[in-house]
């Protein structure tokens, strides 16, 4: 597995991983018709725009020629966050490689990058019902932020999101 900065040419692979991961990870959380309606082509266009704007850093994990995972990260976007906090904006791996270290390797790279950039902590948002995701992040050292829960509508369903926080070693 090779981890490298994403390029605009990576957008198709990122989009495929993004859609496949959502369909599997959120199958019991979001509406099935909504998940089936997700379009790799539309996600590819979005990811082309994101990668061209360079508002965040994006890394891809590649196995052979194909993208098997990606992570997008940067400064924390939360209004109440200190300027020294980074944020994982998105982290997804192809479901066929779950449990094989792809997500952990991507997360390790991103956290190290943010830490070496002088950021003292990293946060992320995860759906409260995403037990697998929460367990993954907690095993890495992230902790729930009490009182951070927020409700919103996604794909025709009311869902709850919770913030997790990782304090970097000093």
Automatic annotation (TrEMBL):
<keyword id="KW-0012">Acyltransferase</keyword>
<dbReference type="InterPro" id="IPR016181">
    <property type="entry name" value="Acyl_CoA_acyltransferase"/>
</dbReference>
<dbReference type="Pfam" id="PF00583">
    <property type="entry name" value="Acetyltransf_1"/>
</dbReference>
<feature type="domain" description="N-acetyltransferase">
    <location>
        <begin position="1"/>
        <end position="169"/>
    </location>
</feature>
<keyword id="KW-0808">Transferase</keyword>
<dbReference type="InterPro" id="IPR000182">
    <property type="entry name" value="GNAT_dom"/>
</dbReference>
<protein>
    <submittedName>
        <fullName>GNAT family N-acetyltransferase</fullName>
    </submittedName>
</protein>
<dbReference type="InterPro" id="IPR050832">
    <property type="entry name" value="Bact_Acetyltransf"/>
</dbReference>
């Amino acid at each position: 597995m090779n981890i490298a900065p994403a390029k605009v040419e990576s957008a198709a692979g990122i989009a495929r991983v993004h859609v496949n991961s959502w369909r599997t990870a959120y199958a019991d959380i979001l509406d099935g018709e909504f998940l089936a309606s997700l379009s790799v082509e539309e996600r590819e266009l979005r990811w082309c725009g994101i990668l061209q704007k360079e508002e965040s850093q994006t890394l891809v994990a590649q196995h052979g020629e194909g993208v098997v995972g990606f992570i997008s990260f940067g400064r924390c976007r939360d209004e109440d966050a200190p300027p020294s906090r980074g944020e994982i904006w998105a982290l997804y791996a192809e479901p066929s490689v779950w449990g094989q270290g792809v997500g952990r390797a991507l997360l390790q790279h991103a956290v190290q990058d943010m830490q070496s950039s002088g950021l003292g902590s990293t946060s992320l948002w995860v759906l409260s019902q995403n037990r697998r995701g929460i367990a993954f992040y907690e095993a890495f050292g992230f902790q729930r932020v009490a009182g951070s829960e927020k409700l919103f509508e996604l794909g025709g369903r009311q869902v709850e999101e919770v913030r997790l926080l990782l304090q970097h070693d000093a």
